[in-house]
Amino acid sequence: MNKTPILIAAAAALALGAVAAGAQEYTAGEVTKIDAAQKKLTIKHEELTNLDMPAMTMVFVVADESMIEEVKVGQKIEFTAERVNGRITVTDIK
């Protein structure tokens, strides 16, 4: 029995899963406050569908301290957020 087609199908399925997992959805928001000492941003944001969270203004920790230096109060951003160690965390900003 030739297992090659099965292995190819399995590899393709894994690759599709990796692409889907890596395709994080960005959410629009506006930075309303920066707390550099605590590594936190307050963001007025649209719905965070991946976290099942409605639009609101809330405080986020940042995954990488350098994100604090990339933004200014009043700046419109697009960002991703996830639960990291039980805390809702900004994981990327563009």
Low-confidence stretches: 9-21
Question: DSSP strand (E) fraction?
Answer: 35-45%
Give the averaged pLDDT, no decimals.
Answer: 85
In order across it, which strands form the biggest sheet? Answer: 1-2-3-5-4
Number of helices: 2
Care to count the β-strands?
Answer: 5
The main pleated sheet reads as: 5 strands, mixed, barrel
Structural class: alpha+beta
Order of helices and strands: HEEEHEE
Give an overview in words:
26% of the residues lie in helices and 40% in strands. The protein is an alpha+beta fold. Strands 1-2-3-5-4 form a 5-stranded mixed barrel. It is globular and about 30 Å long. The model is unreliable at 9-21 (pLDDT under 50).
Q: Which terms would index this structure?
A:
single chain; 94 residues; alpha+beta; five-stranded mixed beta barrel; 2 helices; 40% strand; globular
Break the fold down into its secondary structure elements and pairings:
Blueprint: H1 4-22, E1 27-35, E2 40-45, E3 56-62, H2 66-70, E4 76-84, E5 87-93
Parallel strand pairs: 3-5
Antiparallel strand pairs: 1-2, 1-4, 2-3, 4-5
